[in-house]
Amino acid sequence: MDESKKVIFSGIQPSGDLTLGNYLGALKNWVKLQEEYDCYFCVVDLHAITVKQTPANLRKKTLEMLAIYIGAGIDPEKNTLFIQSHVSAHSELSWLLTCNTYMGELGRMTQYKDKSQKLGDSIGSGLFNYPVLMAADILLYNANLVPVGKDQKQHLELCRDIANRFNNTYSDTFIIPDPYIPSTGAKIMNLQDPSKKMSKSDENPNTYILIMDPPEVIRKKISRAVTDTLGKINYSDDQPGIKNLINILCSIKGITPEDVVTNYADKGYAEFKKDVAESIIDELAPLQEKINNLLSNKSYLEEIYKNGAIKANYVANKTLRKVQKKIGLIPR
Ligand code: TRP
């Protein structure tokens, strides 16, 4: 490990299928980070169980997520790829930080407020404490940077507050992480309502494309994507549906919106959509093949996550011991 490299930590929950938006907006860009940074990519299974999971499905999704990371091009040799529950320091630090976090702080988290409104009294306390576990994830590895979407920014802010408070109370211990805002990475919108982000939690599957969607499903979803009645391919906020499809095409092909507008100057929406669908299919086909191959090679995946856990445990336990000592727990 190169000590001079900055550390990046990120995690994805193994709780569902990833969308084209997750892929183009996040995962695909992480691949570019691996040369420049010391990256930890974690499958956060302990976060997933803050809502009810069926055991067999959780196991399946956890391995799938690992295969997706690798299939997307994240090199298990260059990065630390691991499963959160394989490093017990996450749970342990989470408790120590819980004792240094206020109810008020957690109660102000908008994600918690949204969920508690939906779930009422049956909301699990894991959802309340969720951001503390996330802070533990990040702080254990002395992460300098955390790539997060807008929805996780408040959680990262809280992580910084918790870390700063700990440092002030017990002397300098944690690195204060910054959000990593990638220079590339398009925000892919909902295909039926382009004012919203593409999300797998939408109840209408026509609003999103999953990275494992087969070609005919992709063609159907793109052909049904909302456009407008102007009939001209412009890159404009007045045509948000078309704009989103242009962004998808640009992100896949590495071209600019101007290129697309020029290329399709005298073409119709049907032809444009057909090309967008085919470009998505061409982009996802090799990824799907790699993921499926990895999933049929369980012993390889096992080797990856076991090695990842060894590397991660080493770093995480060092931080945990330091914290335990500072708090006044007797060293073992
Ligand atoms: N909470 C994040 C999400 O739902 C996932 C996550 C868990 C995470 N731990 C993290 C992201 C640490 C970044 C860093 O998207």
From TrEMBL:
UniProt motif 'HIGH' region: location: 14-22
Question: What sections of the protein cross the membrane?
Answer: none
Compartments where located: Cytoplasm
UniProt xrefs under InterPro entries: aa-tRNA-synth_I_CS, aa-tRNA-synth_Ic, Rossmann-like_a/b/a_fold, Trp-tRNA-ligase, Trp-tRNA-ligase_bac-type, Trp-tRNA_synthetase
Name the reaction it catalyses. Answer: tRNA(Trp) + L-tryptophan + ATP = L-tryptophyl-tRNA(Trp) + AMP + diphosphate + H(+)
* EC annotation from Swiss-Prot or TrEMBL: 6.1.1.2
Keywords of this protein's UniProt record, alphabetized?
Aminoacyl-tRNA synthetase, ATP-binding, Cytoplasm, Ligase, Nucleotide-binding, Protein biosynthesis
The main location class comes to cytoplasm
One example of the protein's molecular function in GO is: ATP binding
Pfam families reported in the protein's UniProt record: tRNA-synt_1b
Residue positions of motif 'KMSKS' region: 197-201
Q: Which GO annotations describe the biological process of this protein?
A: tryptophanyl-tRNA aminoacylation
Q: Which residues bind L-tryptophan?
A: D137
Which amino acid positions bind ATP, per UniProt? Q13, P14, S15, G21, N22, G149, K150, D151, I188, K197, M198, S199, K200, S201
Q: Quick one: a GO cellular component term?
A: cytosol
State the PROSITE patterns in the record: AA_TRNA_LIGASE_I
State whether it acts alone or in a complex, and with which partners, per the record.
Answer: Homodimer.
Described purpose of this protein according to its UniProt entry: Catalyzes the attachment of tryptophan to tRNA(Trp).
Q: State what protein this is by name.
A: Tryptophan--tRNA ligase
